[in-house]
Amino acid sequence: MASIKKNIAVVALSGGLDSCVTAAIANQDYDVALLHINYRQRTEKRELKAFNDITDHYKVKRKIVIDFNHFSKIGGSSLTDFKMEVSKADLKSDEVPTSYVPFRNANILSACTSWAEAINAKAIFIGAVFEDSSGYPDCRPEFFDNFEQLIKIGTKPETQIKIETPIIHLTKTEIVKKGIELKAPMHFTWSCYKNDNIACGECDSCALRLRGFQQAGVEDPIIYKIKPVYLLWKKRL
Q1: Domains of the chain, residue spans
Q2: Superfamily assignment of 8-216 in CATH?
Q3: How far apart are CA 174 and CA 139, in angstroms?
Q4: pLDDT category of residue 236 using cuts at 50, 70 and 90
């Protein structure tokens, strides 16, 4: 019996925990095409390694790496401006963290849309998480709803591309559990904003990730310089 041909989906794969689990979800129903952005971030080389490892794990044939040099010229983020310090995590804060890269997700989605239209993909998957949205305004559900409308306006009439954000309403704990359920290669992922050899354990991304694993009662498979206990850290109401 002939196998049913799957539609193509472009997945924005940074190499972090969220994007890895998102790729695992997309891989269930789509022929995935993985896209990675180098934007001169501090951990660019390590994130690229994670991308390649995950790509190899899923034996993906369609993959592309795009260089966004403009973010380092624009600045405004501790990830791309090395004169700025990567701040330690404060999971109780509602302030926009220094790690926010101005309008990054719009840039990433634009690249994904261009490739998706070129290869006739039907969906774009991105691992945005609403839990992060109070700090990162481009992680809010309404941002992606509106961007999908822009795709409809700005592409060929026959182009039909849906933006999928399958983990946007999950907590990090639920994301970890989903990754375990789908056997996602989380041991290949990299989340640290500061270091590219041993994860610092103190930046926002490390803290959110560690708290997710700790609340799930599962050992995080990557190595940390320090591993604080973040179980009781919650945002102020």
Answers
A1: 8-216
A2: HUPs (3.40.50.620)
A3: 17
A4: very low
